[in-house]
Automatic annotation (TrEMBL):
Residues 180-303 form the Mvd1 C-terminal domain. Transmembrane segments: none annotated. The gene is mvaD. Keywords: ATP-binding, Lipid biosynthesis, Lipid metabolism, Lyase, Nucleotide-binding. Residues 7-164 form the Diphosphomevalonate decarboxylase-like N-terminal domain. The lineage of its organism: Bacteria, Bacillati, Bacillota, Bacilli, Bacillales. This is diphosphomevalonate decarboxylase. Its EC number is 4.1.1.33.
Length: 339
């Protein structure tokens, strides 16, 4: 009763920020993302009647008690869904800078959902898998799919209509994303805590929600017509609005650092020179830059001149859930590269 699954991270172009139900992870608004090929998690799950508890090995080491408890709690949902009682041994190899705003939880829980259900012999459709992945980490529901995907917030209290749907496959539009690494340390405020504080205390939050529906329509039109400038402008504006809500929270907080601002300014300078580049930032200090293939190297050359840039990872549209024969070796970590 063993299976291995691989899932990639995604970058939200229309952000998910805020929940209407914390336990089921039901969002306040729809969101839309692009799955990336360069960052991923591969997870092996083996259910065994002889086990007395769940075990979790992360990147070759026994996970912390808090991380192990999080995984075990999620597996309880899978066990309830499948109607089984067995414990599981989980091994996960993560090729994403963890907790730094590179969406490691998205790939992590998407891979865990896929591997655990497959190990139990369940042959699930992608909609059901997306619903289950969402209950581990909201953005994980989008990583079930490759390319562009939209997470529909739904309206039912049980979450049965809150899942991701594919918008455009990874092969249909060659958009590039430069993931700029500025800081790899764990962020001081988790995404869950940050969005909860924002929803409960920020007077700017209602304005954020009011703008999302229009921005979703705009960006889906941009994707359908392959209008890169429109896509970039909407994504950048949406990210700025999300981060503005945090400054209105009590107490206020931000994930940005001075290096974040420096990269944002550099992107604006690039546009002034006629190079199409747009930034987006999730709940962390690192910046992702949207660009077209013909501009990727020019942008990389400019960014490499900035002292605070620790690495630049070139990303393309990536695939959805994939099932594998075995875990990769720990030495296959992603490194800054042109691809």
């Amino acid at each position: 009763m063993k299976a291995v699954a691989k899932a990639h991270t995604n970058i939200a172009l229309i952000k998910y920020w805020g929940k209407r139900n914390d336990e089921l992870i039901l969002p306040m608004n729809n969101s839309l993302s692009l799955t990336l090929d360069h960052f991923y998690t591969t997870t092996e799950v083996q259910f065994d009647e002889a086990l007395q508890t769940d075990t979790f090995i992360f990147n070759g080491e026994t996970a912390s008690d808090s991380e192990s408890a999080k995984i075990s709690s999620y597996l309880d949902r899978i066990r309830q869904f499948a109607g089984v009682q067995m414990y599981a041994a989980v091994r996960s190899v993560n090729h994403v800078p963890t907790s730094a705003g590179f969406a490691s939880s998205a790939s992590g829980f998407a891979a865990l959902a896929a591997a655990s259900t497959k190990a139990l012999g369940l042959d699930l459709d992608r909609k059901t898998l997306s619903i289950l992945a969402r209950q581990g980490s909201g953005s994980a529901c989008r990583s079930v799919f490759g390319g562009f995907a939209e997470w529909e917030k739904g309206s039912r209290t049980d979450g049965s209509d809150s899942y991701a749907v594919p918008i455009m496959s990874k092969t249909e539009w060659d958009v590039r994303v430069l993931s700029v690494l500025l800081e790899s340390n764990e962020k001081p405020i988790s995404s869950r805590k940050g969005m909860k504080r924002t929803v409960e205390t920020s007077p700017f939050y209602s304005g954020w929600l009011e703008a999302v529906d229009h921005e979703l329509k705009e960006i889906k039109t941009a994707i359908r017509t392959k209008d890169f400038e429109r896509l970039g402008k909407v994504a950048e504006a949406n990210a700025l609005k999300m981060h503005a809500t945090m400054l209105g929270s009590h107490p206020p907080f931000t994930y940005w650092q001075s290096s974040t601002m420096a990269v944002m300014e550099e992107v604006q300078h690039l546009r002034d020179k006629g190079i199409q580049a747009y930034y987006t930032i999730d709940a962390g200090p690192n910046v992702k830059i949207l660009c077209l293939p013909e501009d990727e190297q020019k942008i990389r050359d400019e960014l490499e001149n900035l002292e605070m840039v620790k690495g630049i990872y070139g990303c393309r549209p990536g695939p959805g859930i994939e099932y594998k024969e075995k875990l990769p070796s720990l030495g296959d970590s992603p490194s800054p590269s042109d691809g």
